[in-house]
Amino acid sequence: MAEPEREYWFHAAVALLIVAWALNVWVPVLLLRPMWEGDRQLATIEEAEDDAPAPSRPPGIITPLLALVVSLGAFTLGIWQMHESSEVGGRWLWATAAAGLAFLCAVLLLVMVIQVGSRYAQLYMSGGP
After folding, report:
1. Which of 128, 121, 74 is closest to 101 using CA atoms?
2. What is the pLDDT of residue 33?
3. pLDDT for residue 1
4. Residues 92, 82: contact at Cβ < 8 Å?
5. pLDDT at 110 over 90
6. Which terminus of the chain has a smaller tally of CB atoms within 10 A, N or C?
7. Over the stretch 53-83, which tens digit does the pLDDT of each residue have?
């Protein structure tokens, strides 16, 4: 039977994983938001001669950075618990693997957000397309 302290740490790791994956899902939703907001704005334009409004800004890098930090914390917690118990495997290995995958996804999302932000700045901050 697992010690109560080990159960506490595993529940903390699962909570960190849930937060990291929720943030990793939320960032693409924020990236797609200008698409459906732009369609709604274009539908409300009354005159054909009116200029289309600029889309809303893409998300900042705070959300992917937060996902990066949280997943790195879950990864570190998994490695630490495997070191403490002197066994590699079981639920801690799975939690560590899920945290590593969340970390890689967060890195990719961070790169994507930076690229989208720079493209937005090139197009709409310098006077328009």
Report:
1. 74
2. 81
3. 47
4. yes
5. yes
6. N
7. 666 777 889 999 999 999 999 999 999 999 9
Residue pair 12/92 in contact by the 8 Å Cβ criterion = no
For the cut 60, the answer to whether the pLDDT of residue 98 exceeds it is: yes
For the record, the structure tokens of 17 come out as 């994983």
Q: Which residues of 37-70 are buried (b: 16+ CB within 10 A; e: fewer)?
A: eeeeeeeeeeeeeeeeeeeeebbeeebbeebbeb
Tell me the pTM: 0.78
Concatenating the DSSP letter of every residue in the chain gives ---HHHHHHHHHHHHHHHHHHHHHHHHHHHHHHHHHHHHHHHHT--STTSPPPPPPPPP-SHHHHHHHHHHHHHHHHHHHHHHHHT---HHHHHHHHHHHHHHHHHHHHHHHHHHHHHHHIIIIITT--
